[in-house]
Specification:
With about 425 residues, the protein is α/β, with parallel strands linked by helices. The protein has three domains: about 15-100; about 105-145; about 150-430, no CATH class. The chain contains twelve helices and ten strands. The chain has helices spanning about 15-50, 55-100, 105-140, 150-160, 165-180, 205-215, 255-260, 270-280, 295-305, 380-385, 385-400, 400-410; strands spanning about 5-10, 185-190, 195-200, 220-230, 230-240, 285-295, 310-320, 335-340, 360-365, 420-430. Strands 1, 2, 3, 4, 5, 6, 7, 8, 9 and 10 form a ten-stranded mixed sheet that branches. The longest helix has about 45 residues, at about 55-100. The two termini are about 55 Å apart. The model has no long low-confidence stretch (mean pLDDT about 85).
């Protein structure tokens, strides 16, 4: 079995290919119509020429040309039909590529996870009965295996049952959370920390590694890495994921930001990113790449859209983020990394748009045959973790499809191993 990874969208995605094939088929059909018109005109000219015996040879030549035009028109229509059939075959091949796991395999995994969950419950009960000493000695029950039961597609399908009410339900929950957080200190601005010197990322895997580092900084910290050399300045913006699940902290990377972001709305977390970019003094012609994991991916998308009118935002990278409802200007090329066993990318109940400017890489980490699969993706935490997404990014660096290769080719000027400076921006609250 080949590695279960594939992409949708981008330069080699279904919509781009189908658009090209459809345009070619349409052009051929139009050319066939023009040849038919020419054949009719040549036929009429032959009839007129045939009235004069002196022009009889010319009339015969016109009739031959009319016949040739009609024959060519038929050939072009056949070719147009072949292109449309090719488009349908491409759709079928794309669908087949996504069937990385058969029904029997998924049922087997679901059964194994069900049994594993029962064992987890028994272990948890034994630890509870043993008291704090048992918990301390054995390290707690951990998380049960569940990704054979539910992952990205199952979560999306379940939430999609809400239909048009999905957005209304999320907005209502967001309002409740907002009211619960009324006592939190409000976000005001960002404050830069001392500048660090480092080596800029030279690959997509390095970018995911930077996101893991930002996650360790806490406090909603946003980092901007800048490279300045003979080619000018370029910047990479790293956005943290959810850090605050309560309603008392002023950290903008909180549950309220999750609920707003999944619908594509601005939040304090997105405002902090915009403020950090402005505070960094980035020039309007200096290229930017924004990247984020989980909530950070959603916020990076929203901030990129907000910044695109004032700055040269070229690329966005998201990992494990539900971004299907978030709009992005077509001038910004997005790359979405999604583990199919990670339920988080499915929480928006909508697949990412299949457009030339957005590439979605789907990777079934649980069935990966790579030696660098440290996570296993059997639990929620493993499937959503940085280690798995770094391994997926490594595969993209090696080459997954024409779409991912085209995306990386365009990102090369931003992914250069050169000396850089990293500035951390911490949100300021009252």
């Amino acid at each position: 079995m080949t590695e279960p990874i594939w992409s949708a969208g981008g330069a080699g995605g279904v919509m781009a290919v189908l658009d090209d094939l459809d345009a070619a088929a349409g052009a051929l059909a139009a050319a066939a119509d023009a040849l038919d018109d020419a054949a009719r005109a040549l036929g009429v000219a032959a009839q007129v020429a045939g009235w004069s015996p002196a022009r009889a040879p010319a009339a015969a030549g016109l009739l031959d040309a009319a016949a040739a035009s009609s024959t060519e028109a038929v050939r072009l229509r056949d070719l147009a039909a072949t292109l449309r059939a090719t488009a349908l075959a491409y759709l079928e091949a794309e669908a087949e590529a996504r069937r990385a796991v058969g029904l029997a395999g998924r049922l087997g995994e679901a059964g194994a996870d069900w049994l594993g969950s029962l064992a987890w419950l028994n272990r948890t009960a034994a630890l509870v009965a043993g008291g704090p000493a048992a918990m301390l000695l054995l390290g707690g029950p951990g998380l049960p295996p569940t990704t054979g039961l539910v992952g990205r597609d199952e979560a999306a399908g379940l939430l999609a049952l809400a239909g048009d009410d999905y957005a209304r339900i999320v907005a209502m929950v967001a309002l409740v959370v907002h009211q619960a957080e009324a006592g939190e200190p409000p976000y005001r601005a960002v404050d830069p920390a001392p500048v660090l010197e480092d080596e800029a990322p030279g690959s997509l895997e390095d970018v995911v590694g930077r996101l893991a580092w930002v996650h360790t900084q806490g406090d909603g910290t946003i980092a901007i890495e800048t490279v300045r050399d003979a080619h000018g300045a370029r910047h990479l913006v790293y956005v943290p994921g959810t850090e605050d699940w309560w309603v008392t902290s002023g950290n903008p990377a909180d549950l309220e930001a999750d609920l707003a972001s999944v619908l594509g709305a601005m939040s304090d977390a997105a405002r902090a990113v915009v403020d950090a970019v402005v505070a960094h003094g980035i020039g309007p012609d200096e290229p930017l790449l924004l990247a984020g994991h989980s909530q950070g991916g959603m916020v990076a998308m929203i901030a990129a859209a907000a910044l695109a009118d004032r700055f040269r935002v070229e690329r966005v990278v998201t990992a494990g983020a539900p971004t299907g409802r978030i709009r992005l200007p077509p001038t910004v090329a997005a790359l979405h990394l999604e583990n199919t066993r990670d339920l988080v990318p499915g929480l928006d109940a909508r697949a990412n748009p299949d457009t030339p400017s957005r590439v979605t890489v789907s990777h079934d980490r649980r069935r990966s045959e790579r030696a660098d699969a440290p996570d296993g993706s059997r639990t929620i935490a493993e499937a959503h973790g940085f280690a798995g997404y770094a391994a997926t990014a490594r595969l993209v660096d090696e080459g997954v499809s024409a779409s991912t290769e085209a995306w990386l080719d365009g990102a090369r000027p931003l992914l250069t191993e050169a000396r850089s400076t990293v500035t951390a921006y911490r949100p300021v609250t009252d």
